[in-house]
Design brief:
CATH class of the largest domain: Alpha Beta
Structural class: alpha+beta
Oligomer: single chain
Strand order of the largest sheet: 15-12-14-13-17-18-16
CATH topology of the largest domain: Vanillyl-alcohol Oxidase, Chain A, domain 3
Bound molecules: flavin-adenine dinucleotide
Shape: globular
Largest sheet: 7 strands, antiparallel
Helix content: 25-40%
Strand content: 15-25%
Number of helices: 14
Distance between the termini: 41 Å
């Protein structure tokens, strides 16, 4: 039997794989192939040569060593949600972590050990049984792996920070197949890099996550016709920027849906939705969220007390698997009349009832983490904005893509710089370096040279080991 740490020769690649891999191997022609290769964004209909459905770190190690020996490119699939579809590519080996979704909670230590293929809902369902959660994203079918490694904005970011700030340790399979545990004491520089650099440095097979106490949340949404949106957004800006970390306020511009609480005259028209969520004592919520709607009155308001699990699933139905998506995103310096005017113009041009422009004031605990403590850049960005096109007909691809691109371009005067790595899509060369800035990118490139010098893990927003 081949020692798992010996190099594998190309002529032994296939037998090495079949002798050592414990999970499920799926190839073109197999019954489950089309289902397993599909990712969330229906734009990416790509056909890997092999899908290695791993059961643990040892399988990931075997799959990586097989791919290198066979001369195949590698992609890593966590939840399959990346808008650029980086989890899958033609002719490659997809390391599929989706069977690895076990979560063990240590409520006393306020930590959870979550396997690298967990969805956010897998983590929540284990931790919420103890009244605990790890701050993460706003759609529960997103993968923990990609989200946490790239940063992780969500409901609790202003209160507790990003998901990557909650990575205490990680079990990582390196590009050469070796398995290490990155902690503050061992491979500490690798742990620094895992907090924000995406999947560049290794395949994380298990995260150890810090947990926070959570309870029911007070949640208030108001809807405004587009004609009133400028005034409402002026108030949003003033309100959001003076809040403490317990209050999270989000704005969305989109075509109003058919929900009962939305006035009939607004349904099917472009509208502004403002949401304020209170994470302090829920009984105090109403007094803290009401001022957002005090002077610019919405046409209708929906006020709810939600369990944390309900909050986490609020966004689940709006962005289903298999539709076509194209997202552009930027950080904004401000939300003054200039950018608001541009956002409203972009809203008037929305061509799909499924598309949306989201923006929110960040700050809070995100910026409490010292800048040098993690690979995640631009913690001081005031606002993040995403212009997300969603549609179903492939014949409409060009128009929706152009709308999304133009939506962010028209805000250029107010761009803060950089970008959120998890929202990048078909960017110009050099964008990843721009995201991290030169000093941080150089530090990450040095890590890449140490942990993945051959750039085996290149199916991502890639950090080149060749960079100075
Ligand atoms: P995948 O497509 O499976 O993986 C993306 C990349 O991550 C892979 O190419 C790989 O390089 C890497 N990767 C994944 N898992 C691992 C692992 N275990 N080890 C090593 N590398 C790995 N982001 C936010 O910050 N906040 C949000 O609220 C939010 N909401 C979203 C909602 C929707 C509907 C969608 C589609 C995306 C959202 N995102 C959000 C963006 C999200 O962070 C990225 O799409 C992220 O890449 C998703 O991770 P994934 O594991 O599902 O993706």
């Amino acid at each position: 039997m081949t020692d798992l740490l010996d190099p594998v020769s190309p002529d032994r690649a296939e037998s090495f794989l079949t002798d050592h891999f414990q999970g499920v191997l799926v190839r073109p022609g197999d019954r489950s192939y089309d289902e397993v290769r599909a990712v969330w964004n229906g734009m990416h209909d790509r056909k890997p040569e092999l899908i290695a459905r791993c059961t643990g770190a040892a399988d990931v190690s075997v799959a990586l060593r097989y791919a290198v020996a066979a001369g195949r490119a590698v992609t890593v699939r966590g939840g399959g949600h990346n808008v650029a579809g980086t989890a899958v590519s033609d002719g490659s080996v997809m390391i599929d972590l989706s069977l690895m979704n076990r979560v063990d909670v240590d409520a006393g230590a306020l930590t959870a050990r979550a396997q690298g293929g967990c969805l956010l809902r897998d983590v929540d369902s284990a931790t919420l049984a103890h009244g605990l959660a790890c701050p993460a994203g706003v759609v529960s079918h997103t993968g923990l792996g990609g989200l946490a490694l790239g940063g992780g904005y969500g409901w609790l970011a202003r209160k507790w920070g990003l998901t990557c700030d909650h990575i205490v340790a990680a079990e990582v399979v390196l590009a050469d197949g070796s398995i290490v545990e990155a902690t503050e004491d061992d491979h500490a520089e690798l742990l620094w890099g895992l907090r924000g650099s995406g999947g560049n440095l290794g395949v994380v097979t298990r995260f150890t996550l810090r947990l926070r106490p959570v309870g029911p949340v007070h949640h208030r949404t108001g809807v405004f016709p587009l004609a009133d949106a400028a005034a409402a957004l002026a108030l949003y800006r003033e309100f959001a920027e003076r809040q403490g970390p317990d209050l999270h306020a989000v704005a969305t511009l989109k075509i109003a849906g058919q929900q009962d609480w939305i006035p009939e005259r607004l349904r099917g028209t472009p509208a502004l939705f403002l949401t304020a969520t209170w994470f302090g004592e829920s009984a105090e919520g109403p007094e803290h969220t009401a001022p957002l709607f005090a002077t610019a009155a919405p046409d209708a308001v929906l006020t709810r007390l939600l369990s944390f699990a309900e909050l986490q699933a609020l966004g689940d139905h709006g962005e289903p698997h298999g539709n076509r998506y194209y997202t552009k995103s930027c950080y904004l310096t401000d939300l003054t009349e200039g950018p608001v005017g541009q956002l409203l113009d972009a809203t008037r041009e929305i061509a799909s009832p499924l598309s949306a422009i989201d923006f929110e004031y960040l700050r809070g605990a995100i910026g409490d983490v010292p800048d040098e403590d993690s690979a995640f850049p631009r913690r001081d960005a005031p606002y993040i904005c995403t212009v997300s096109a969603q549609w179903t007909d492939p014949a409409e691809d060009a128009g929706h893509r152009a709308w999304s691109r133009r939506g962010v371009e028209r805000l250029a005067e107010w761009h803060f710089g950089g970008a959120y790595v998890n929202y990048l899509q078909d960017e110009q060369p050099g964008k990843v370096a721009e995201v991290y800035g030169s000093a941080r990118y150089a530090r990450l490139a040095a890590l890449k040279r140490r942990y993945d010098p051959e750039n085996v893990l290149s199916g991502n927003q890639n950090i080149s080991p060749a960079a100075p």
